[in-house]
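Worked example

This section walks through a single chain of length 242. The input is the sequence exactly as stored; nothing has been trimmed or padded.
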Amino acid sequence: MNLPKSMSCPSLSRPDWCQAIPLPLLEAALLLTWSSGFIGARFSLDYAPALLVVFWRCVVVTVILFPFVISQLRRASPGVLLKNAGIGLLAMAGYLAGIVQGIALGVPAGLAALVADLLPIGMALLAAGVLGQRLAWPVWAGLVIGLLGVSVVTHGALAWGNAPWWAYSLPLLGMLSLAVATLWQKRLPASDSLGLLPNLWLQCCVSGVAFAGLAGAQGSLAPIPSAGFAMSVLWTAGLSTL
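Given that input, the structure is written out below as tokens.
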């Protein structure tokens, strides 16, 4: 899967630790951390409303990263910040709202994960249908093989659950939101790129505002004083985000 520019390794002073780590280990880490979000979303439902956990996840990451990104954010123009904020709303708020709310309504986490795994195919279809990009047949063949592989690996965890019929569209909409954000970001010129940490901070910040409105409409935004709630926020903020 091609990652957004902001998810590539940043330029660091020597020694460049990102280049020193073998690629298979980085890929395995990406797999584990990406998948941990679905586990954390299901775990958190036993202790708090799903959107409240996601809101505090964004708050924690925003607070932790702020001292490390403030100088870079000050140098960015308002136009660059607005573009990246729009991408962040689609990539984080749109994606997480669809996945997490779908699971909260009863869509099994395994099925939600399978839909999220359709991201490469979603990106390919959008690139071909909306942007008019022609993809070579080996690309399509690779996507089909990848889809078959995902189906084989996850078929044992798949179940329909007891969610209302329309709730099953939420993970799909979340995946498409992330696909649109990824294609948008890939088309940005290099001068509009904020870099890894500033972009992550901005995405969490604007998404936190969005989730404040969504979670606030359902009740209080105050954190729930329980170990389960704290573990849910720390799991999703630390492992799934940072």
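What to look for: Residues 78-104 form the longest helix (27 residues).
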